[in-house]
């Protein structure tokens, strides 16, 4: 038999642990309610997501291109933005939004050692699963999704879109988690310029375009699609695994739509630009300087 003095001590310890656990949960609950009621947006709440969601969160960071349009020997994802590789800046945004997020980084096979060296050089030691890219973006994403389990939420994001906000990431994860009908969430921004349908008829380095008659575009009905595109993992995996590559597949939403997966749209951010050309990198630098100075 256990002496009464020892048994009494165990009971006190169990009660103390129970009280402490309830106290901490109450603090977190109050913190969450405070952020919902006062800020009315998903700012601080996203930092608790991993502890309250039923599904784990994965990021597939797409960085398998060689960036020929950048006109540089160094692929754009490895070029420096404020003394850090663009890809690192992008991944860090998701880590900031969702500490503990599982990261899968898709790279050109011959640049995997380069990325490892850059991570060491910049003290970027966050765990990553490195996946080699395929012959097209479709095949690269398909390779990455093999490492994503069913029953999770996966964000597929261009590795060269480092300027999206932490708030955007958090609000999107919240939306797909809390709305039962949402299985695929796609950010969009409205078109602001006048749009016209043209055929490129350039020849012999002489630029020329021809108007396509009969096509009228109402810009109020036209939106540009961005990333991250966020999915229930089993849904997007099914879309990729049940279809062969098609030239219509320009992004993940087109793959999902072709497989009859209903899409939910949300507002993206104008500053969530994709760094594709040299001027994009210069714009990104300017935007980060503006954010830093507060102008």
Could you explain how this protein is built, in words?
With 295 residues, the chain is α/β, with parallel strands linked by helices. The chain is 39% helix and 17% strand. Strands 1, 4, 5, 6, 7, 10, 11 and 12 form an eight-stranded mixed β-sheet that branches. Strand 4 (102-107), helix 4 and strand 5 (129-132) form a beta-alpha-beta unit. The model is unreliable at 20-52 (pLDDT under 50).
Tell me briefly what this model is.
This protein is 39% helix and 17% strand. By secondary structure, the chain is α/β, with parallel strands linked by helices. About 11% of the residues have low confidence.
Tag the structure with descriptive keywords.
single chain; 295 residues; alpha/beta; eight-stranded mixed β-sheet; two-stranded antiparallel ribbon; 9 helices
With helices defined by DSSP (H or I, 4 residues minimum), what is the helix count? 9
Helix content: 25-40%
What's the rounded overall pLDDT mean?
85
Taking pLDDT < 50 over at least 5 consecutive residues as the criterion, the unreliable ranges are 20-52
Measure the end-to-end span: 72 Å
Which term fits the overall shape? globular
Radius of gyration: 23 Å
The amount of beta strand, in percent, is 15-25%
Tell me how many strands there are: 12
Helix/strand-derived class? alpha/beta
Reading the helices and strands in chain order gives: HHEEEHEHEHEHEEEEEHHEH
- Biggest sheet details: 8 strands, mixed
